[in-house]
């Protein structure tokens, strides 16, 4: 009797759950009838927007499979694993994943992938899972610089090379991992700081919306910005510097508070675009005009933000190019040749201002 | 009492009295102190404009916290509220084509269904609340992300936007609705048979069962209410932010709500509920956040301050029940 | 061996707390072996050799019996707990207390009686010179009580002083040498136990004259038999539940008090709960007023059956609710319109029952947990009675309440029966069971082993019936007694 009642309960729960799922997906109808959500990775394959190498460090820093201590393999014959760190609801992540997937397909390479949804423990598990699944080479977009040691150690023990992209990890190149491809975050921040100086020639109070505390990208973007301001724009004063976790809703909340405590603020530097969008929402709600009363500068170059730049709502936006596919697979190919791959590939990021934003949008160069 | 009468020593008495007072009125006093300090630092803090900003930010947490308080009263906990917020936000853009009100109704129904699942697991299948709602917390968010196609969608509908941004008579629409919800919850707790059963079940489930109370029905209802309130919070968040992002909406809301409940003086052991205290708890935590951000205190310090407050609140609660 | 008695609220517990360092006295002194002492904490008192056993068992239910016994002073070897030795010693110690269990078992898997024994054994092990026992026998079976008394006498012979608090007068006369009677926070008499007879003792506690007590009778039940009329209001047939009930049938007719006799674990409470629909059954049926009810508590209440549960704290009161809310808890459906509690109706009910049962509370708003045990019990009785029942199942209605409240509760039961209610009475106190019941159904090991009617309703016949009942030979079969009892009895 107890058993049957338990079974009945279980089936009730299952039925109710299924009903919920069916009911919600059954006859949805979104507001824009123009074909639903456009996958933001659409511009991933655009050749004009492809990553360009800006610098590769000193010429001696070259890594091959022999110096790394890995076995020679042909990429076409093995499985490559890709570990994405964060949810693809962020356009940057969506485009990055799309680019890697597209390039693997174009080269006929078998790719498996996992998404850790901003959970570094999950990413450790993801990497270990892919190794267990037979991945012989890994491309990892690390969640942070310290937390992945266990997975990296396991890969190293099994002589599985790892290429890190978009964020760095601690360790030595060509030993713990092959190398790094990505943006110069401090450099991006420097450009943003110079833009801020241009946007506010008469100086004024400014606020910084920081990324997640302890994140190395956030730190580099804060340091790069504040150093440049201190060095060349003495009339700009950072009066508020608060974290908003790279999140739009949090960016909005924090900006609402800052506007209360510092109503005289003239400029906002957001360390990514989603926070910038949140800040714009907050500025509008406070009855001020972004682009006129308050200048907003962001980083990442996502479509929504670049549209705002074109419309004069945002002053400028520094791109973080997420189209890692071609460069990443090129680096792996070089790694398995005698030529070797540089261990520190810094990409040249676009810089969107009112002058070029509309053009970039029209050309589909924005993700 | 006669000559052998004994009383606890005066020192003990005083401490108990202080603890009791802190339990009952500490939150309100703390709110007053925070407002005073902030106004002293910057007189503009005491302005309608600033209060409106704080109200917009606190209302979603407050609404979720009320549902949480009801669940906690039954000796339960609802970790799925953050995920329900995500679900509700995911549903809105999906059905906006049918008009804002229908999409809101569907979002609320979705919240109720999630609550129903939690309630059935807890009441009928006897799964521990923390486990049942933890499962939902993961599952419902995943489902919400799938529904929404894994990317944030902007929601520009005017009705929903107004809910999250506009005011009636100078006070945000959200706040009016929240006031109604608070009154309804307070009324239900104090005056209805349901409220009475809720506390009785949380206080002594065995006795309630033997007194013939519909324990299962009450439990299921409580989780449904919690789901519904979380869904309402989700609608407000979409309105305020102007977009729906199931991956990030409602993250950590379960913790904020539990904090508000605890700071408000509702014991985690169940059997007692403080509706106004919960409101005050949410407002207090909001003011703490506002104080820290507006005075540009570093995030790491802010987290420590919040931790200290929670420990203080729990200590006060323990001090009382330990008597 | 010193007895400490008094009604609830007489100041016994407070006195104990002063002696053990929980409270500090405002005035006066505590002397231990002639020296004035002041304990800052219960721990200090314990270190000085005063150990206390409270009514509720204060042990760690999930830990093993052995760990509980040695908690804080485990035998060690190489710095680690020597669990082999601990278990061996635990087994030896507990054998002296008549508890034959595997010391590795978690404590909570033991019966309440066995748990109490472990608590006593633990208290005595801590090199005690004074042992204070606060109602140690309230959850023990008669046989366990005997064992305990054996232990107590042995302790006394070893020169350990024992303060014994109990409501059971029989026990006091059995083991105690001297007695202190307290009333209203003051000592009213200190004397040799043998110098005070029962009636004197009761009158001292109550502060009434001997004549009063006599006319009220020892239990508060009138001797007259009740007018039993009509068809059974409750008919339980062949109730079956694995390990607990093996075909119990009981009928209760209007105006009749049916006693349910038997030892601890014989299935008395289970029978009551089964009738109430609070215990899932493997078989059997319950008819109320001739129709079979749905097997839920709510359905039973609607049909007119109510129950006063055995464990007041765990299953009865809702501690943080008020007296008022506790009284009307089960009656909510009757006083609710459109989900709202009708306050006028509620107050009317609460008023009436607080007066009728003479519930002493500062106001109906007082939290029920602040009331004395007797008044809590009356609140629960009010909860039952305001449902306007046809049948009342009373499981230990007077356990742990003071003599005055006890007599009142018994009087009410009597009155109810006279008004035509059917009553099922479960009581471990023979006097109460015998004097209160018109008929006694005797249970043993989940089975009806006899029924006493008319003049046969007496202490002697009940005990003979219990003694005569054949032992259960097949321990593995369904209907065998609870595992704990089994294990303990096997070693007898």
UniProtKB/TrEMBL annotation, chain A:
Residues 51-61 have a biased composition (Polar residues). Residues 1-31 form the signal peptide. Keywords: Signal. Its main location: other. Residues 28-61 are annotated as: Disordered. InterPro entries: Peripla_BP_I (IPR028082), SBP_2_dom (IPR025997). Transmembrane segments: none annotated. Gene3D superfamilies: 3.40.50.2300. It is found in: Cell envelope. Belongs to the bacterial solute-binding protein 2 family. This is LacI family transcriptional regulator. It comes from Luteimicrobium album.
TrEMBL record, chain B:
CDD domains: TM_PBP1_transp_AraH_like. This is Sugar ABC transporter permease. It comes from the Bacteria. It is a multi-pass membrane protein. Pfam families: BPD_transp_2. PANTHER family: ABC TRANSPORTER PERMEASE PROTEIN YPHD-RELATED-RELATED (PTHR32196), RIBOSE IMPORT PERMEASE PROTEIN RBSC (PTHR32196:SF72). It comes from Luteimicrobium album. InterPro entries: ABC_transp_permease. The chain crosses the membrane at residues 25-41, 53-72, 79-98, 104-123, 130-150, 170-189, 218-238, 275-294. Keywords: Cell membrane, Membrane, Transmembrane, Transmembrane helix. It is found in: Cell membrane.
Automatic annotation (TrEMBL), chain C:
Residues 1-209, 228-470 form the ABC transporter domain. It comes from the Bacteria. Transmembrane segments: none annotated. One of its GO terms (molecular function) is ATP binding. Keywords: ATP-binding, Nucleotide-binding, Repeat, Transport. The keyword Transport applies. PROSITE patterns: ABC_TRANSPORTER_1, ABC_TRANSPORTER_2. Pfam families: ABC_tran. Residues 455-492 are annotated as: Disordered. This is Sugar ABC transporter ATP-binding protein. It comes from Luteimicrobium album. The gene is rbsA_3.
């Amino acid at each position: 009797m107890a058993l049957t009642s338990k079974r009945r309960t279980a089936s009730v729960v299952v039925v109710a759950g299924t009903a919920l799922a069916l009911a919600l997906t059954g006859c949805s109808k979104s507001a824009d009838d123009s074909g639903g959500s456009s996958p933001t990775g659409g511009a991933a394959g655009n050749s004009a927007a492809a990553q360009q190498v800006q610098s590769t460090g000193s010429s001696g820093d070259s890594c091959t499979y022999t110096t790394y201590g890995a076995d020679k393999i042909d990429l076409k014959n093995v499985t490559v694993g890709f570990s994405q760190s964060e949810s693809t609801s962020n356009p940057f992540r969506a485009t990055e994943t799309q680019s890697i997937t597209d390039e693997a397909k174009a080269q006929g390479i078998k790719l498996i992938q996992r998404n850790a949804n901003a959970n570094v423990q999950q990413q450790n598990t993801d990497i270990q899972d892919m190794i267990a699944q037979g991945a012989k080479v890994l491309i990892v977009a690390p969640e942070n610089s310290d937390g992945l040691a266990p997975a990296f150690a396991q890969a190293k023990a099994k002589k599985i090379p790892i290429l890190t992209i978009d964020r760095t990890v601690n360790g030595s190149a060509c030993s713990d991992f092959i190398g790094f491809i990505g943006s110069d975050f401090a450099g991006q921040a420097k450009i943003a700081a110079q833009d801020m100086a241009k946007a506010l020639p008469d100086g004024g109070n400014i606020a910084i919306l920081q990324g997640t505390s302890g994140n190395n990208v956030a730190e580099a973007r804060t340091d790069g910005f504040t150093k440049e301001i201190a060095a060349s724009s003495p009339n700009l004063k950072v009066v508020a510097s608060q974290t908003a976790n790279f999140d739009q809703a949090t960016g909005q909340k924090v900006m609402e508070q800052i506007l209360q405590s510092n109503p005289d603020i003239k400029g906002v530097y957001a360390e990514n675009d989603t926070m910038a969008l949140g800040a714009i929402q907050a500025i509008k709600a406070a009855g001020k005009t972004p682009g006129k009363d308050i200048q907003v500068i962001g980083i990442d170059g996502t479509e929504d933000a670049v549209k705002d730049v074109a419309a004069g709502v945002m002053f400028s936006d520094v791109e973080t190019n997420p189209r890692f596919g071609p460069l990443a697979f090129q680096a792996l190919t070089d790694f398995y040749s005698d030529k070797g791959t540089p261990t520190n590939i810094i990409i040249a990021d676009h810089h969107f201002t009112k002058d070029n934003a509309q053009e970039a949008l029209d050309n589909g160069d924005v993700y | 009492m006669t000559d052998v009468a004994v009383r606890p020593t005066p020192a003990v008495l005083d401490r108990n009295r202080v603890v009791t007072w802190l339990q009952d009125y500490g939150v309100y006093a703390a709110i007053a102190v925070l407002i005073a300090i902030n106004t002293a630092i910057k007189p503009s803090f005491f302005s309608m404009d600033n209060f409106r900003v704080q109200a917009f930010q606190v209302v979603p947490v407050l609404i979720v916290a009320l549902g949480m308080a009801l669940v906690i009263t039954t000796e339960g906990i609802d970790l799925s509220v953050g995920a329900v917020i995500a679900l509700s936000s995911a549903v809105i853009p999906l059905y906006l084509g049918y008009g804002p009100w229908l999409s809101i109704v569907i979002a609320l129904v979705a919240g109720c269904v999630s609550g129903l699942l939690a309630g059935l697991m807890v009441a009928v299948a006897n799964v521990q609340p923390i486990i049942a709602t933890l499962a939902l917390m993961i599952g419902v968010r995943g489902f919400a992300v799938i529904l929404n196609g894994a990317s944030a969608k902007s929601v520009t509908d005017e009705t929903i936007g107004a809910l999250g941004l506009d005011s009636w008579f100078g006070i945000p629409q959200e706040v009016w609705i929240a006031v109604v919800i608070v009154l309804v919850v307070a009324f239900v707790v104090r005056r209805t048979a349901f409220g009475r059963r809720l506390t009785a079940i949380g206080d002594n489930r065995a006795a309630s069962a033997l007194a013939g109370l519909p324990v299962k029905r009450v439990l299921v209802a409580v989780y449904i209410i919690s789901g519904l309130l979380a869904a309402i919070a989700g609608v407000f968040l979409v309105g305020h932010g102007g977009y729906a992002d199931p991956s990030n909406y409602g993250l950590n809301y379960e913790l904020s709500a539990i904090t508000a409940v605890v700071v408000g003086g509702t014991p985690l052991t169940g059997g007692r509920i403080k509706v106004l205290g919960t409101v005050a708890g949410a407002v207090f935590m909001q003011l703490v956040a506002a104080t820290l951000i507006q005075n540009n205190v570093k995030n790491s310090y802010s987290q420590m301050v919040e931790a200290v407050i929670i420990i203080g609140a729990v200590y006060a609660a323990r001090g009382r029940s330990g008597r | 061996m010193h007895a400490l008695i008094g009604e609830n609220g007489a100041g016994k517990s407070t006195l104990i707390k002063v002696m053990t360092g929980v409270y500090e006295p405002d005035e006066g002194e505590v002397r231990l072996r002639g020296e004035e002492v002041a304990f800052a904490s219960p721990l200090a008192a314990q270190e000085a050799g005063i150990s206390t056993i409270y009514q509720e068992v204060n042990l760690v239910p999930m830990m093993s019996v052995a760990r509980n016994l040695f908690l804080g002073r485990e035998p060690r070897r190489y710095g680690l707990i020597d669990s082999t030795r601990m278990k061996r010693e635990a087994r030896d110690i507990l054998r002296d207390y008549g508890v034959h269990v595997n010391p590795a078992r978690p404590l909570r898997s033991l019966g309440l009686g066995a748990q109490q024994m472990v608590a006593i054994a633990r208290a005595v092990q801590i090199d005690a010179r004074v042992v204070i026992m606060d109602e140690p026998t309230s959850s023990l079976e008669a046989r366990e009580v005997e064992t305990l008394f054996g232990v107590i006498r042995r302790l006394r012979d070893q020169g350990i002083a024992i303060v014994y608090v109990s409501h059971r007068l029989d026990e006091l006369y059995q083991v105690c040498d001297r007695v202190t009677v307290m009333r209203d926070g003051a000592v009213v008499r200190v004397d040799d136990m043998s110098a005070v007879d029962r009636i004197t003792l009761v009158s001292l506690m109550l502060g009434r004259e001997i004549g009063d007590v006599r006319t009220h009778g020892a239990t508060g039940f009138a001797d007259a038999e009740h007018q039993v009329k009509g068809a059974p209001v409750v008919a339980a047939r062949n109730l079956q539940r694995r390990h607990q009930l093996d075909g119990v049938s009981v009928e209760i007719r209007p105006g009749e008090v049916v006693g349910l006799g038997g030892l601890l674990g014989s299935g008395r409470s289970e029978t009551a709960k089964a009738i109430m629909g609070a215990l899932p059954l493997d078989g059997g049926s319950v008819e109320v007023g001739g129709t079979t009810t749905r097997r839920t508590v709510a359905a039973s209440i609607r049909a007119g059956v109510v129950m006063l549960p055995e464990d007041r704290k765990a299953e009865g009161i809702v501690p943080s609710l008020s007296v008022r809310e506790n009284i009307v808890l089960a009656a909510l459906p009757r006083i609710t319109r459109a989900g709202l509690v009708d306050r006028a109706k509620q107050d009317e009910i609460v008023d009436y029952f607080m007066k009728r049962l003479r519930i002493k509370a500062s106001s109906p708003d007082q939290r029920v947990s602040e009331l004395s045990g007797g008044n809590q019990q009356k609140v629960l009785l009010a909860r039952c009675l305001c449902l306007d029942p046809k049948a009342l199942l009373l499981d230990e209605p007077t356990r742990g309440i003071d003599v005055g409240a006890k007599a009142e509760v018994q009087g009410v039961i009597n009155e109810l029966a006279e008004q035509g209610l059917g009553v099922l009475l479960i009581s471990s106190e023979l006097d109460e069971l015998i004097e209160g019941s018109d008929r006694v159904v005797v249970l043993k090991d989940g089975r009806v082993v006899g029924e006493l009617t008319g003049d046969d309703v007496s202490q002697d016949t009940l005990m003979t019936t219990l003694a005569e009942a054949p032992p259960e030979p097949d321990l593995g079969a369904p209907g065998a007694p609870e595992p704990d009892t089994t294990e303990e009895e096997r070693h007898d």
